[in-house]
Specification:
The protein is α+β, with helices and mostly antiparallel strands. It folds into two domains: about 80 residues, Ubiquitin-like (UB roll) (Roll); about 120 residues, Alpha-Beta Plaits. The protein has five helices and nine strands, in the order E-E-H-E-E-E-H-H-E-H-E-E-H-E. The strands form three sheets. Strands 2-1-5-3-4 form a five-stranded mixed β-sheet, sandwiched between helices. Strand 1 and strand 2 form a beta hairpin. The chain binds iron/sulfur cluster (SF4) (2 copies) and FE2/S2 (inorganic) cluster (FES). One iron/sulfur cluster (SF4) binds next to helix 4. One iron/sulfur cluster (SF4) binds next to helix 3.
């Protein structure tokens, strides 16, 4: 097999590893594509956040970059009217179920949602879709960190870190559709589970849902 594959993203010719997913090929070459749920080591991405759409020459619908392997000669655009519309809608839907109080949030200025808004010129406020306003109980039972589901974007990064990194199997998804939530085993407080506070889940969280208490603002 050839040592690299030649592709073009946004008119830039780059050489990437054969078999690499388009999202990681772009990011490793400093070409930003919005993303929340992608995990580099995961061979079968669940592509749930719907933020990483790109256009590929020869394909007449936008494609999720986290699911698509690079191919020799592939020509990709990270922006187009169709892509921008899809990303904007996915982003606004995410915000409709998000406790948007950045000034009170431990992730303020270090948040994937803020970065996406900045990179794509999107407004970080409730807009087209009315806030859902789900109410969640804060789990601040661990000594070092807390879990505020009202800021969770359902990316699944904590679940991967917990299962593959810590092998603890404490976190998981529950329910479907609008009721989907990240839950703990039997919905118990973290301190009542076999959590040894390795904090891999906290480090994996791209927003302010899992956060260190020392970084709490209020
Ligand atoms: S997670 Fe990000 S977007 Fe949400 S309140 Fe915190 S800083 Fe703001
Ligand atoms: S708690 Fe954080 S890492 Fe886990 S699913 Fe929610 S946003 Fe993603
Ligand atoms: S990063 Fe591709 S769908 Fe979430």
């Amino acid at each position: 097999m050839s040592e690299h594959v030649n592709i073009t993203i946004d008119d830039r010719e780059i050489k990437v590893r054969p078999g690499e997913k388009l999202l990681w090929a772009a990011l490793e070459n400093d070409i930003y594509i919005p993303h929340l749920c992608a995990i580099k080591e995961e061979s079968r991405p669940n592509a749930s956040c719907r933020l990483c759409f790109v256009e590929i020459d020869g394909i007449d619908y936008p494609v999720a970059a986290c699911t698509r392997q690079v191919e020799e000669g592939m020509v990709v655009k990270t922006r187009s009217t169709k892509v921008d519309r899809l990303v904007k809608t996915a982003f606004e839907l995410l915000l409709s179920d998000h406790n948007l109080k950045c000034s009170e949030c431990p992730a303020n200025r270090n948040c994937a949602l803020q970065r996406i808004a900045k990179e794509r010129g999107l407004k970080l406020k409730h807009n087209r879709f009315k806030p859902i306003g789900r109410e969640f109980e804060l789990d601040d039972s661990p000594a070092e960190f807390a879990f505020d589901r009202s800021r969770c974007v359902l990316c699944g990064q904590c679940i991967w870190a917990d299962r593959v990194g810590a092998e603890a199997w404490i976190f998981g998804f529950a329910n479907r559709g609008i009721d989907r939530v990240v839950t703990t085993f039997n919905n118990l407080p973290l301190a009542e589970l076999k959590c040894n506070e390795c904090t891999l889940c906290v480090d994996a969280c791209p927003v302010g849902a899992l956060y260190y208490k020392r970084e709490q603002k209020v």
